[in-house]
User: Fold these one by one.
Assistant:
Number 1:
Amino acid sequence: MTESRNPADAGTPISRGIGARRRVLRAALDVLDERGLAGFTMEAVARRAGASKATLYRHWSSSGALLVDAMDATFQPLPIPDTGRVEADVAQVLTAFVALLGHPRFPRLLAAFIDAAERDPALGSLHAELTRRRREPLLVVLTRARDRGQLPAGLDPDLTVDLLAAPFFYRRFVAHRPIPPTLVTEVIARVLDIRPPE
Amino acid sequence: MTESRNPADAGTPISRGIGARRRVLRAALDVLDERGLAGFTMEAVARRAGASKATLYRHWSSSGALLVDAMDATFQPLPIPDTGRVEADVAQVLTAFVALLGHPRFPRLLAAFIDAAERDPALGSLHAELTRRRREPLLVVLTRARDRGQLPAGLDPDLTVDLLAAPFFYRRFVAHRPIPPTLVTEVIARVLDIRPPE
């Protein structure tokens, strides 16, 4: 996204470059956290960021687009590791993911998305897109390992991502049980059928 | 729970026996569905059921206790199958569970619990208890199969319940992807390492 140089933007924080963009994204998360998805409007974010609504619309076509950007910018897409050992790569991604579940804001936002998605199909699609992005690193790691012959040729990478990621969501949001540090290794051992080092 | 015979209850539906009890539980689900957990109060349920608040309190010690009863009564705990084959038993429980995810009310209620649990620890405990009850049939099936030697002696039944149940929650509430009829067999094959019949 290029920064606008339109003189009409003079004085609006968004035109001051990367720092201003970050400020809008941070304001977006603040609004989301405080008001929930129902209260997430361009107007509310503009007010919070000290920018005009028109300025925000020049950079984001909709409140949905802004929301996706804000989530991505705050909860960085996990890097794709390549240690040469598939179980180590998967462990890195899952460990980063467990850390995300311990973030002060992320679980509450995710729970709000889960609830809102049941009542609003547009928010459901948005949530699906956010999840798709979060699945990507694990999908790359598994597909690559399969193509390298480190995993069975018949392995379904998509189902495997479900099997690896789902227990952490389930423990956190449904069962409300603790996630011990050993759970990453245990899940990997069961799902990939690779024994953890003794 | 014994029905009150106190004359003060005369004319309140709850004292008319099992049908009245069902009416209160149905009213509780209606209130929950329409107002969410935040609006779930004894007063709202009493009004909806045409009973007095005092009468409700004689049967349920708190709105939480009423809520758990209402959820259990509406979404019957799944029966525990015993076909003699662990994969068939697990498939029955998971298939009933997938049906629950297709219920017109259940997913929205579960999503509301997920969201509310993040903001209110008491609701989190209530949700954990509801989940614990829903896990029970699968836990019994797996523990029994392990004790019969149909599954490895070292199998962790609790972790196995997580691995079996979580992908369905995750698909429905996080990834928003379809749950094909084949998914039950695929998940069982991967998690229990038992090949589906050709």
Note: The radius of gyration of chain B is 20 Å.
Number 2:
Amino acid sequence: MNQRLRVGVVGAGAMGASHVGTLAAGVPAAQVTRVFDLDTARAKDVASAAGGEAAESADALIADPEVDAIVIASPDFTHADLAIAAIEAGKHVMCEKPLAVTADDARRVVDAEVAAGRRFVQVGFNRRFDPGFQDLKSSIIDGSLGEVRVLHGIHRNASNATSTDDAGLVTGSMIHEFDTFRWLLDGEIIGIRVESPVTEGFRDPQVATLWTDGGQMITAEVFVNAGYGYDVRVEVVGTGGSASLEPRTPVIRRISGQGGSAIGSDFVAHFIESYRLELAAWADAALRGDVVGASAWDGYVANLVAGAGVAALGSGARETVDVPERPELYG
Amino acid sequence: MNQRLRVGVVGAGAMGASHVGTLAAGVPAAQVTRVFDLDTARAKDVASAAGGEAAESADALIADPEVDAIVIASPDFTHADLAIAAIEAGKHVMCEKPLAVTADDARRVVDAEVAAGRRFVQVGFNRRFDPGFQDLKSSIIDGSLGEVRVLHGIHRNASNATSTDDAGLVTGSMIHEFDTFRWLLDGEIIGIRVESPVTEGFRDPQVATLWTDGGQMITAEVFVNAGYGYDVRVEVVGTGGSASLEPRTPVIRRISGQGGSAIGSDFVAHFIESYRLELAAWADAALRGDVVGASAWDGYVANLVAGAGVAALGSGARETVDVPERPELYG
Amino acid sequence: MNQRLRVGVVGAGAMGASHVGTLAAGVPAAQVTRVFDLDTARAKDVASAAGGEAAESADALIADPEVDAIVIASPDFTHADLAIAAIEAGKHVMCEKPLAVTADDARRVVDAEVAAGRRFVQVGFNRRFDPGFQDLKSSIIDGSLGEVRVLHGIHRNASNATSTDDAGLVTGSMIHEFDTFRWLLDGEIIGIRVESPVTEGFRDPQVATLWTDGGQMITAEVFVNAGYGYDVRVEVVGTGGSASLEPRTPVIRRISGQGGSAIGSDFVAHFIESYRLELAAWADAALRGDVVGASAWDGYVANLVAGAGVAALGSGARETVDVPERPELYG
Amino acid sequence: MNQRLRVGVVGAGAMGASHVGTLAAGVPAAQVTRVFDLDTARAKDVASAAGGEAAESADALIADPEVDAIVIASPDFTHADLAIAAIEAGKHVMCEKPLAVTADDARRVVDAEVAAGRRFVQVGFNRRFDPGFQDLKSSIIDGSLGEVRVLHGIHRNASNATSTDDAGLVTGSMIHEFDTFRWLLDGEIIGIRVESPVTEGFRDPQVATLWTDGGQMITAEVFVNAGYGYDVRVEVVGTGGSASLEPRTPVIRRISGQGGSAIGSDFVAHFIESYRLELAAWADAALRGDVVGASAWDGYVANLVAGAGVAALGSGARETVDVPERPELYG
């Protein structure tokens, strides 16, 4: 039979447990062998359901000879150090977004890869693997929209337990938009402004304006307590037309004077197929020594933009995003 | 039979001729008796198709005893003086937007009404009469959206022969959004910023950010050479949900691997029913000595916002909109 | 000023009163001068709101010199005799559907026109004037669907106070579909079968299968107590594609895990613009001595199909529709 | 590591190769060990891409100790005998639809299972595993539609290389609808009529009418050369509302006066996720000795309905579907 990538998963919370389940039920190229979580009972449950075992610590998991590659789904502040440890152990990594809490920490991951002379890290910007987002990108690439001038992003949660302060909304939620726009446009964000109609307490929603090195302007609304459901949309507008990602569940109900479709509130369910494709692509690439998807560099730049966004939220002004020279490793 | 409002129309261009046709074919309460245009042959043709006659001049039309009320559809720079002349003649006016090119000129119309001690002027912000926009407003009023936080407006033309310079896009096209937002929210715009991804030549599209006295932020994209068609959309987002005006023609064609509906390029055709309802409401009100729809004050404030918008386009900064105290006449 | 058609309206029920209101508020070419209803107080109210007077009887209304043309909106069983009386008086008629309760009665109207040597009657198949249905028809005419093979019709009411028995559903509701299909396809229905999943009590919904002389098959579901709202859809399927009339109200609400739009229950509101265009086209034509829209012949054939449909509902078999030779008058 | 089901695949055509690829890339519980096809080079290619080997014959594959379970994706006429051979070998089967070409052949499979005293066969009615169809079914089960009265099915291919004669359209394409309706309604089809507007040559499209033991009527249009794309829709109409499966790709393009989304022509791509879920559910069940999805009995009844449908296409009449007593084995 074919070789399978033996995967250790650090973090068995909602995202980590979902990844373990997805690997076990939908990614034949991978096999979950170890799971670590501070909640050891939970780690054991999640691991055994997938045919693996709990690890004693994250370090032990990374060092374990039964682990070829690591999925990092632990709290954000642990990401960078875990990724660096994995790099130093010469093991492939799929690190949940964000790569780090600060750009400086993310830079340390980049530097570790540069020092190692090769790449190991894929950052979990899963939208890059979503068929809808890929179709949207193809509308740009195939030229049918002409020259792209403006993008509009919407990112709403019914409610959000993790993005609960002003900066966290930028670094934890809006960071998806930063990577999405860079990837869709194959360009760099050079300026950002973040504002909110809410001036007291938690500033939610936030409205960002972004500028790219390709001459586009972008508006992005992120509203993590929008109440009605999980809703992610992007419209790309060019001189030749517009393409708009507007997913809709396939069943239309007509009842009591209303016709429409369900809007879920669970982002994991919404993007479940993208997670599977992301993990499958990661495992396939790792087995052949390759890295696909968002790189550590992409993760670092997303953190740079987020840092400028947080500064902008404070200054009320447009902040410049200064992206250093890209190391050759990220060609 | 019932009394009919005898209407004189100044300007027989595309908009004026459309209004004459709409009055003749769809507004029984009105009767077009006089039409004036510098192109006298055109004035005669348009008038006679509606059973009326050409007038010798705008002044003569306003003074004509066969004219009870005036529709102003001549070039923008003539609006204010014509409206003032009509007010002084004690005749009702339906003045196409904008009420004036500058806020100062619009203020003169307001002052003329205040001096006259009564209102005569309806400004042609036709969206207020569009069933879709009214339905959108009802979503706000009925409370189902909770507290409104953000609005997003889209206003695209396939191409535009009249909004052809940076300021003109604001004062001629985006001015519709200014009135729409004020009317939807029953509030005042207190700040505006206007930017464009295009930095050389005609800065189209433009992206505006607006702030209201009700604590909302608004993004508005106006793109007058969007190529694909005429497209006007508004989304209103509150703490309880979102309502989005997204008109669609009723026939879905599925041909050659594509399923969808037609998007027209003619704004008059798109909003034709709103024009009829606007003119009908104006004629009904005029017959009973009343004024409905957007007032001269609304027209003036829209000009104030547009003026600040043009300044913002130059300064690159957020400009404050200073709305003076509202005269009692506008209650 | 232009000449106006002086209209007498027989029947001031929901449909009649709506027509009076539409003529008064939206059809400048017409003027309601007389209204008759057995409920004389209602007739007076409806008439005076439009600037007209109540008539003493239907006969008096038809004979009245202040009446140039007649709208028949009285109970169905009165339609044929009233239409014939109007023809004999040489006055134009807009007769609500159906033209008659039976094909024999409808034939008497046709014969009266033939005897008069000219046409006076338009039958109120309003869908022919609906912009959506016209757009659907244009998809057939322009050839983009290739050769049409199949149509599917849906016609649902939330509840229905008038179509309350098996035959009445066919003759009162489904008759709209019969005319729609003939008009869309510019063809003749040659066979019909009507069945229902409900075998006891009121057989609602009913599912009809129809055959045309153009080689098409049609399915039509009519469900007059469908509960959720008023819903009329038609899909036309050809060898080159499909066109589907699927009207949707323009505002999308996203609230509480559902996204969708309102579905009304009032067929008059749903088709209000088609009624106005129908009455306007009728008045314009009458003023120039012409007749447009569905003819008495079309009304008669619709009754023929309905008669075969009622027979089919009883026989359980496909019934042939035998359309006699068309008199020259109907070209 | 977890046990994996070792799968042998008979038939490496489009469907078989797709299943091999899906198993290899998306079903960790299974492992393709053997592939047989008359085209041995193709079998070898398909097998080796998945890490398996070509088998010498279907019999050898079924007998192979490295094969725990069999996927049958060979030509329809081979299905029944292969399924019986697998049953006799005591191995699980996922047999592509139809289970057999005739009901008699399908009955032999049922009889083989009954003789074996246990079930081995899942029939590849993949729609049962499609999230959209499952959502549609939940609308029926949760009672929100009230009592279901009518269903409407649409099944169109751009073009079809396999359903190329009148009977083949029923037994090869429409058979999907038969299973879908039975499964959605948890009921039995008791009558069927199949007609076509096309009377010469290949009778495509066909329009079926079906009756269920739950008192529902169903219309189903199957058009295997519809030109524009692959389109499968079902509407379920009850006394409380309607639920309609209307999948739409998530990106809306607005270009050149048209707004809409892409319609593919590849049924495998359209339903690819349902195939993966079907195969995964099959493998999981087989590993625990269970059978899920459509049973051999369901496959047999679908063939019975198809047989009645073919008879109806010839007779022009409604044909009764006589379903024998269900063996206890099928609960």
Note: The CA atoms of residues 114 and 329 of chain D lie 7 Å apart.
